[in-house]
Write a structure and sequence with these properties.
The chain is mostly beta strands. It is built from 1 helix and 16 strands. A 5-stranded antiparallel beta sheet has the order 9-8-7-10-11. The termini are far apart.
């Protein structure tokens, strides 16, 4: 099925230069002189690169052969990250290049969405927020709950997160997986 620039919407996946991309932003522009065009930002799904592009109005593209599957993260075997397909229960080893920076937020038994292109995994979508336990940080300061001063903390997955001064070892914190930023302390 052909996709036209008039079909553009954020999140649309299509082929560009023989590679699957996802539209992250677009704006239809109709200048006083000349033909209309679309200014867009696309993310290359295989390497994660973001690029700005300009398309002529009415330009056509091929729909990307992308399949999304829910899988459950099981463990890291030292070389690959092993996931389980929730429908067939097959174990799927993914190389570290596919998991990328998402490894910093992966917890055992976490359910994630995996994007497959021509049967091969190319990208992992984590939930927007995860709750992680702080395993190492400087001792917190009593009563310092309003300061915007941050300190480094290591969480159970090994990731370094900047947290507020009152966070202590053993605290559970909510982290934004898209930006890697501390959101809040979670009461247990």
């Amino acid at each position: 099925m052909a996709i036209d620039t008039s079909d553009f919407k954020n999140g649309l996946k299509f082929m560009l230069d023989q590679v699957p991309v996802q539209l992250t932003y677009f704006q239809h522009v109709k200048p006083g002189k000349g033909g209309a065009f679309v200014r867009a930002k696309v993310k290359y799904l295989i390497n994660g690169r973001n690029v700005e592009k300009t398309f002529r109005a009415g330009e056509k593209f091929e729909e990307a052969d992308i399949e999304m599957k829910k899988v459950q993260y099981l463990y890291n075997d030292g070389s690959d990250f092993v996931f389980m397909d929730n429908e067939s229960f097959d174990q799927l080893p993914f190389p570290p290049e596919v998991v990328g920076d998402n490894a910093k937020y992966l917890l055992e038994n976490m359910e994630v969405s995996v994007m497959f292109y021509k049967g091969k995994p190319i990208n992992i979508d984590l939930p927007p927020h995860v709750v992680l336990e702080v395993t190492e940080t400087e001792p917190g300061l009593r009563g310092d709950t309003t300061s915007n001063t941050l300190k480094a903390a290591t969480v159970e997955t090994g990731a370094q997160i900047m947290v507020q001064l009152f966070i202590n070892r053993g605290d559970k914190i909510r982290v934004d997986t898209r930006s890697g930023e501390y959101i809040e302390r979670v009461k247990v």
